[in-house]
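sorry for the late reply, my laptop died twice this morning and i had to redo everyting from scratch. anyway the thing you sent over, i finally got around to it. pasting the sequence first so we're on the same page, its 185 residues, then the predicted structure underneath. double check i copied it right bc i was rushing
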Amino acid sequence: MKCIVGLGNPGAKYTNTRHNIGFLAIDALAKEHGIKLTESKFKAVFGTGMIKGERVVLVKPLTYMNLSGEAVRPLLDFYKIAVEDVLVIYDDLDLPLEKMRLRSKGSAGGHNGVKSLIQHLGTQDIKRLKLGVGRPPAPIQVIDWVLMPFAKSEQVTLQHVLSDSVHIATDFIDTPFLALMNRYN
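ok and here's the structure:
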């Protein structure tokens, strides 16, 4: 069984913000594969289904970003999913909106959601898909930027990014991760 986790913050006021691009990617993936995100436990909303003949669970932690590991660890334990079978999708300030990057491991890089996952999963060897949201223009502060909704002028690009993230996450199911990185990075 595979697990794909999108990071974000719960609540209507965060719905279309940059920090919630991971949630948006999970929603797009669920829609593409007809997976209903209707289960609610382990401090997460999630759904199970089949992608490419493999059972998969799609997850959106309902903790705030900096506590994401509190939702993911018990869910992995319940479904007996190994960390190697997890892909985490989240926002990255160091990439512009149209860019994305796959990584097989690494530090949190200042991202509190990833920091929480590393802490609760006990490893930095977490496969990840980082979706660019860009750096804020001056004088906007980083915290305000990531909690800001995407501008109307960014919507077409955002939809392309989400579509590409669906393809990548779908290929994650049956493609060795190194080959996936070589294909998409």
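The first helix runs from residue 21 to 33.
thats about all i looked at so far, will dig more tmrw
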